[in-house]
Amino acid sequence: MSGESEGEAGRRCGFVAILGAPNAGKSTLVNALAGTKVSIVSPKPQTTRFRIRAVLMEGEAQIVLVDTPGIFAPRRRLDRAMVSAAWGGAQDADFALLVVDAKSGLTEPVRAIIEKLRSVQGQRPIWLALNKVDLIPRETLLPLAAELHGLLDFAESFMISASKSQGLDRLREKLAAAMPPGPWMFPEDELSDLPNRMLAAEVVREQILRQTHEEVPHHATVETEMWTEREDGSARVDCTIYVGRAGQKAIIIGEKGARIREIGRRARLELTELLERPIHLFLNVKERPGWDEERSRLRALGLEDEG
Ligand SMILES: Nc1nc2c(ncn2[C@@H]2O[C@H](COP(=O)(O)OP(=O)(O)OP(=O)(O)O)[C@@H](O)[C@H]2O)c(=O)[nH]1
Ligand SMILES: [Mg+2]
Fold first, then answer.
1. Which of 121, 194, 250, 307 has the highest Cβ tally under 10 A?
2. Is the minimum distance from the CB of 27 to ligand 1 under 6 angstroms?
3. Across residues 209-230, what is the average pLDDT?
4. pLDDT tens for residues 126-156?
5. Whole-model pTM?
6. What is the C-alpha separation between 27 and 49, in angstroms, rounded?
7. Which residues pair with 192 in a beta bridge?
8. Are 176 and 58 in contact (CB under 8 A)?
């Protein structure tokens, strides 16, 4: 390989699993640390469905952040696969960083996650990030931190605001210093391992999460069916949105197609910016009852079926 040179001896590299309850701000944190959008974000829980890696360079250290789906009590096959993807991410990592929404505090899901982390403690260090500190007064933060430390012996803890980029420099430095010695696993200029077809589907799904409500976002999935390169440097991208019921399809399409047009418009703008080239996006909505129990739909999301 041509890229290898004298600097290699001091290199460090490690995997950090970002874990937490749904909506804690894990993906926001991963994007903020990576300095670009690699994982979609929304105000609704259960936004992230599969593991997404972001690669961060910090001097001689390569930090591979693994964004994971929020951990909750799963019901559907989709939910079970999401939660096992999250725990699988923790298993493969050198570190786990538990992200806790400081505003919501020590909720039942957070307790349950800590309980399980405690049973695997000793295998790898667990760090704590109290997120969304911009939303609460400092006085309430310290008792919460103390309570969390009483439940688990976190090796390091941080008070951060992922969306306001507060406290992230210290976190980044500590992470870099903690990476074990070893060769880099990814090319220096690779930001994420998400293929463009997946990125396109995720960006469309983000708009569905943002523009529809109640049960609709969680009963929709998006797959890129076709990616066609054009001679002028642009690309045509055809995505299918699967929903569970006719009513959900009607909501996504909207009156005279207004909603689907707006979903498409915003997703196209975002993709064009992220990929730095014109994208022509075509969306198609299909009713497909029970897609969230279907193995092939879950495989399209890169989720291994674990039951
Ligand atoms: N005020 C404030 N909001 C935040 C902060 N970090 C994240 N958020 C918001 O919290 C919501 C959830 O953020 P996500 O990053 O999607 O959360 P997540 O943990 O990845 O959620 P799942 O993928 O569903 O598990 C979004 O509306 C974010 O804008 C923060 O530091 N401060
Ligand atoms: Mg997420």
1. 194
2. yes
3. 96
4. 999 999 999 999 999 999 999 999 999 999 9
5. 0.95
6. 11
7. 54
8. yes
